[in-house]
């Protein structure tokens, strides 16, 4: 594993469970994405991990920020970003929050409905707005519902209407689904976006920006495309669909920026069977679904687990892995066919790899009395 | 609705989302359970809502407490309970936490495996221990997995073995599943427990206590048994299976103690459709799965929703209800066929009833920047 994190765990022996993030990896991820898409502005999706250390690093690196709420906007401003580097990317905003963002200087807003467009027009007059369209999310590991976005036909109508509401119809956004390994999905979405651009140009509205959203994967159990492969696929699709009328582009990586930079150190609390002839052991860790591993919901995200007994050829056995709370739903992996070393014992450490995204803030506010996840940024 | 909560919401106009709990209802629930099971000790399942106001009320009322962790034990002690009123009911405990509980005077511990029994024997010598057995959870609305408990045969072996480990094999516990409306489930479990008692008595071990767990329901959308009906069913089953050799009994109500005492006040952030001919509207509230309504997972718990437009005969329409975060999984009800008034507008209040249990501590630690749920106890 990452030697910096390994050294920290060895030397500091922090109480478990805890998340340790290597900020150098975040910086590397930022550089890799910038190199892969040199003409694209990067808006870090703050919700993936809003730690001040990460925000400060990305401010210094030149990143912009995709924010979901006023507290996230304030965290980004506190880290030193100017408001022109902030997109209020949530399509579900209280009008009072739009006004608060406008007051802070934010001038770029997402919407996907007439009511939301009207709120932005009233509370953030003159701002740039982009309309999110629905995509299928096919191939994404984290479920993409129809919660965000509208059908392209509605997007066209709303963008045309925006001109008369005192805001600037600036572009279109989409999201291919989190942890998207199928690069073809970007092409499909960009074809739809290009159609909107073309159609609206014919009606006298020249859109300027395509927001390509996120989807950039973190390596869990299976291989993923590299940043360069994501970039190549996106650049090819942009060229194919927009030719020499290339729009401004932005991306909103969250998981792809921080996921592989973090390791959660946990401890085995109990290993047991339910009867003498039970064919699988239960391994209970001191972190579960309510302590930061919410993305194990429906076993969607399969984190790599590493122990000190993993030497090649070491005997392993099938296990059910669960968290420490008194909630019967707090099971991490049952159907996913996890195996752990037969030599694993109570008190042993289990490293949960690639845990830098969607863990700290997903942790519950003290469920069962367990404190939120402790965090170290090194 | 509850006039005390209504008056508070009307007069104080708290910012949404917030939970308002009527402590009188908690007191009423405690009295109703005590009246229904006068010979049974009540151990409140602290995890359902560990607010100091609730703990203090229940300490004064004479309740005991089922705790899942050292922080919960400390909250109960801080509320004025003596340690003899505490059960460390989690079957998954670090040995250091068993030692910490023992140090605080706790002398009653749950286990369901040999390894856990050994931890308790080492770290809490001389204590009373009870073994949790597996039950099917059939009929429970919140999923009951095989996470807790062991098969009865293993329970017998472990309880017999406990005698030689320096702890007192005190009894057996089970859980029929949270929000259990089928009273027959208690009878099935008690038949198994009585068999264990009988079998072990034949081997010279007289167990003394049956822990009936929880399962006591809160009224959400459909009717539920009264406390008296739960009590009658349990008393009948105890008599049937134990006759004149009645054991001590304890219950661990959580949801049944606080669920109906709380209302979450929320606000409509957005109402929208995805296309002009969409047949259902999306209604986005300012609270969702990560803000306290985690029990909407798989639409398991169906909270009653109340608005100011609910007059009899008022027009309503089918809706999808979602939370305010940028997470596509943050949808409360899609398949559950919820309807809301056609007159509902952005900015209107929506009351989420029977929300006193498993909400405040399930709330995430600031996911998307949204603060944990504000709480008022009146």
UniProtKB/TrEMBL annotation, chains A, B:
Entry keyword set: Lyase, Pyridoxal phosphate
Residue numbers bearing the N6-(pyridoxal phosphate)lysine modification: 47
GO molecular function: ornithine decarboxylase activity
The UniProt record lists the keyword Transcription regulation: no
Active site (UniProt): 326 (proton donor)
Keyword Nucleus: no
InterPro entries: Ala_racemase/Decarboxylase_C, De-COase2_N, De-COase2_pyr-phos_BS, Orn/DAP/Arg_de-COase, Orn_de-COase, PLP-binding_barrel
Protein name: ornithine decarboxylase
Organism encoding this protein: Caenispirillum bisanense
Origin organism lineage: Bacteria, Pseudomonadati, Pseudomonadota, Alphaproteobacteria, Rhodospirillales
């Amino acid at each position: 594993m990452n030697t910096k994190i390994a050294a920290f765990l060895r030397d500091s022996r922090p109480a478990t469970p805890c998340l340790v993030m290597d900020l150098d990896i975040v910086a590397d991820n930022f550089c890799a994405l910038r190199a892969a898409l040199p003409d694209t502005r990067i808006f870090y999706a703050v919700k993936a991990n809003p730690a001040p250390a990460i925000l400060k690093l990305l401010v210094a690196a030149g990143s912009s920020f995709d924010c979901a709420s006023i507290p996230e906007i304030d965290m980004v401003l506190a880290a030193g970003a100017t408001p022109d580097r902030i997109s209020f990317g949530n399509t579900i905003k209280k009008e009072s929050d739009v006004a608060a963002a406008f007051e802070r200087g934010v001038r770029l807003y997402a919407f996907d409905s007439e009511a939301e467009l009207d709120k932005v027009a009233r509370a953030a007059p003159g701002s740039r707005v982009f309309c999110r369209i629905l995509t299928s999310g096919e191939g994404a590991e984290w479920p993409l519902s129809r919660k965000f976005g509208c059908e392209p036909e509605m997007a066209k109508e709303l963008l045309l209407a925006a001109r008369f509401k005192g805001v600037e119809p600036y572009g279109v956004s989409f999201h291919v689904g989190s942890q998207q390994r199928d690069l073809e999905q970007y092409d499909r979405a960009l074809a739809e976006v290009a159609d909107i651009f073309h159609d609206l140009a014919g009606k006298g509205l020249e859109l300027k920006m395509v927001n390509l959203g996120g989807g950039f994967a973190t390596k869990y159990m299976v291989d993923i495309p590299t940043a360069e492969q994501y970039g190549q696929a996106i650049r090819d699709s942009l060229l194919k669909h927009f030719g020499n009328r290339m729009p401004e582009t932005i991306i909103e990586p969250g998981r792809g920026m921080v996921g592989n930079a973090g390791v959660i150190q946990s401890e085995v609390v109990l290993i047991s069977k339910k009867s003498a002839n039970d064919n699988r052991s239960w391994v209970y860790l001191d972190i579960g679904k309510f302590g930061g591993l919410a993305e194990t919901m429906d076993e969607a995200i399969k984190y790599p687990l590493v122990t000190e007994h993993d030497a090649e050829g070491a005997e392993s056995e099938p296990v059910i892995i669960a968290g420490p709370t008194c909630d019967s739903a707090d099971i991490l992996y049952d159907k996913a066919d996890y195996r752990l070393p037969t030599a694993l014992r109570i008190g042993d450490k289990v490293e949960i790899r690639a845990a830098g995204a969607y863990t700290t803030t997903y942790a519950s506010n003290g469920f069962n009395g367990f404190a939120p996840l402790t965090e170290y940024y090194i």
